[in-house]
Amino acid sequence: MHAYTDKLSVAAGETIRFHVSSTLPYQLEVCRLGLDMDSPHTDKVLHAWKVSEPVMQPIHPGSYIHVEKGLTADEPIEALTIECWVRLWDVWGRQGLVSQFDETHSGGFALLVDQDGAVEWYLGDGGAVQENGWHRGEKGVLAKVKPPGRRPPGQSRPTGRRDKWHHVAAVYDGRTKSLWVDGRRVQQWDWRGTVRPGTAPLRIGAIGRDGLADNFLDGDVAMPVFYKRALTEDEIRRRFETKALQTPTGDHVLACWPLSEEQGDRVADESGHDRHGRIINHATWMIGGPSFNVNVDRFADYDPAKDAARGHALRLASDDLVDCRWEPTFEYRLPKTAKSGMYVGRIRFELDGEPRLYHALFVGKKAVDAPRASIAFLCSTNTWKAYAGTPFARTWPKLKHSFGHSSANSPGDPPMGSFYWRHRAGQGTYYMGLRMPWPLAGPYTVYGGQHLGHLCYADRYTQTWLERENIQYDTYGDLDLHLHPELLDGYKTLVIVGHSEYWSAEAYRGVERFLKAGGNVLALSGNTMFWRVSFNEDGSVMESRKVDTMGNQLEPTNRGEVWHSQDGHRGGMSRECGYPAWKLIGLEFITLSNTATKGHGGFRVLDSKHSLFNQPHRLDVSDGDELGLPSAGKPSMVVGHEGDARVSTIAKVTTAPPPPGAEFPSRDPDGIELLAEGVIDWTVGSGTVFDYFMRPIAGPKAQAAGVNLGAEMIYWQRPDGGKVFNVASICAGRGFVDDPKFGLLIKNVLHLFEGQSK
After folding, report:
1. Does domain 64-316 have CATH number 3.40.50.1000?
2. Is 694 helix (H, G, I), strand (E, B) or coil?
3. Contacts for 234 with CB less than 8 Å, ≥ 6 apart
4. Is 340 within 8 Å of 370 (Cβ atoms)?
5. Which of 465, 537, 642, 708 registers the highest number of CB atoms within 10 A of its CB?
């Protein structure tokens, strides 16, 4: 049972589509989530369908280039040269480099690499595949490949070594076939036969089987070229020496793809023969070619567009998949009167004799022409998607489920990946498709056995509290703010919640504009605005390139790949991309800890006389009292799993000098008032403190430097306009559950922001 919706958010009065693949009968319900965070019994069911004859829909993972207009010839080909550059990631078996070949019906030509690093080359007449058309080169000629074998579920491959670039040229002169690697001939065979391309599509990074692409390449490719003659030894050597920086010209060039687009799904043929290609399943741009020195300094003034040696290439992966491309199973028009909030397509079915629930989560927005509330509530949908490590997870038997970045995969080992997992062969995951299942972001999933609502569950703490208090709000997802940064115009308050970790530059600038116009931000989120993301034009693919701290998807020595393909700008941590959280909401990430463990407390009040503790609701707290604590005997969960602090606090643990070219902002912006600090006693608590450059500091050392906390609570009247109240903990919303005074504090904040008491 797997499902997804065609969009992450839908306005009342608009249609949402559900794409379901199932082998079991089921009932699908469209539900608005109610006040009970741990049970569906308060949810409102808007519509339901029963399905007795389910349909299973296939997926087709694997990225490659499809060229519809392949080589054609009325007469047999008398001479041919195929060249390309390739860098292997891993080899599970035979993988296609360049082919116009289908092993079941059309044996034209094919270059492959096998599990031993040998190049296999086939030439045929375009009909049935003949055994004498195959020739195999030397074992290990394409560098030493990683040993075969799939990684265990939940475990990525080692990332310390990448195989080098190789130039491969296959030459047929009518009498002999020769294979050249890195400018030298490594094999030659006497061979005469009729050579015709056949009817299969031309593919780069795959071959055909039964009309479908297969044997996908786990590797990077650069400058594939076809010539209608045999290149000489000197010509091949010169092509090797140019390192894919020189595009060949002349009438003898049948096709040439420089791969210089660096974005989109189209690759242009520069030969003049219009053999343009289309990328299937996205693949990865902006990785540089064979001449590129990928080891770019972290804070260098580097511009990829000005690097003449960068070159161009495309990274392919056998498990690339950003869009299932399933047919819609159901359509539903959300009623014009539907309230904004969090919704699910809830699927009820039985497996092994017991009932199970599957959820396709989406955000319901108010009708476009409906009157607005004064509060905009931002769901952390970018983060929900970033952690969706097992899109095809087996549906767990119980309602609640604890996971890390994954869950048990379905049979057949379908693609698994997130911004915390690499591809099967070790390539970094830089893209997440939004037209995919994401069951791990469901309404009842918690994180890693910590009882921590890490994704949707974390957002629901604040959402359900607002509803219980009858405080009106309008719900949006991160993508809405990215696509329409102006949507905050007219609101008084933006509420940021949960684990709002992944932000686009467009959304950041939208909030900046909102604050400068006098808007207010209530942040109940930790690790906020930490990673920069971008989106393709229609918002269906999210990009993030993570480096220089936990969860790296590329090693620091490969930092030259951190520039995004979707907008050409630097990726990585927002603070290193020109969008630091502290400039917008006052605080930056500092701690990672395990919640509900020894040493964790509440938010210790430091300025009990501040108006926010007293007006209009008097909290009756003194300095040293802790907010957000549960009743006696229960573990505190309001501080953690990740928390943020002022840059002046981070400065206390930043003892090493900044990296070359970097500066440390040790001074806080004017006007920040520290109201409370989230208690973590590092002598007994577990976790890590980080300096501004994400260098880990052991807890005891942090405590010796005067940092004995997990997060900070601030109020900031910004000099540039707007007001911010920031309780910088992923678990901040837990305070609504454990401590009534925490709710009174937020009411006081909203009274200040909204000009009314609730």
Report:
1. no
2. coil
3. none
4. no
5. 642
Round to whole Å and give the CA distance between 738 and 758.
20
Q: What are phi and psi of 40, to 5 degrees?
A: -85, 5
The sign of the torsion formed by the CA atoms of 569, 573, 575, 581 equals: positive
Helix intervals (H) in 366-485: 381-386, 456-468, 478-483
Domain ranges of the chain: 1-58+341-371, 64-316, 459-469+478-530+588-758
φ/ψ bin of 434: left (φ > 0), alpha (ψ from -120 to 50), beta (otherwise): alpha
Q: Is the pTM of this model over 0.85?
A: yes
In 681-738, DSSP assigns E strands to 687-690, 696-697, 709-717, 723-727
Judge contact between 141 and 86, C-beta under 8 A. Answer: no
**And the tokens for 666?**
């040790």
Q: Write out the two tokens for 632.
A: 């006696």
Cβ atoms within 10 Å, residue 234: 9
Q: How many angstroms separate the CA atoms of 667 and 681, rounded?
A: 25
Determine contact, residues 753/620, Cβ cutoff 8 Å. no
The C-alpha atoms of residue 47 and residue 11 are separated, in whole angstroms, by 16
Place of tokens 């959402």: 463
Tell me which residue of 352, 289, 354 sits closest to 315, measured CA to CA: 289
List, for residues 647-664, the tens digit of each pLDDT value: 999 999 998 999 999 999
As a whole number of angstroms, the distance between CA 215 and CA 193 comes to 26
CB-based contact 80:67 (threshold 8 Å): no
- Between CA 610 and CA 71 the distance in angstroms is 76
**Total length of the chain:** 758
Average pLDDT across each block of 10 residues of the chain; the chain has 758 residues. List them in order: 97 98 97 96 97 97 97 87 96 93 95 95 95 94 61 41 83 97 97 93 97 96 98 98 97 97 97 97 97 96 96 98 98 97 98 94 97 97 94 91 81 92 93 95 80 85 97 98 97 97 98 98 98 97 96 93 97 98 98 84 97 97 96 86 96 93 93 96 86 92 88 97 97 95 98 72
CA 317 – CA 423 distance, rounded (Å): 7
CATH number among 2.40.230, 2.60.40, 3.30.420, 2.130.10, domain 1-58+341-371: 2.60.40
**What tokens does 169 get?**
């040229």
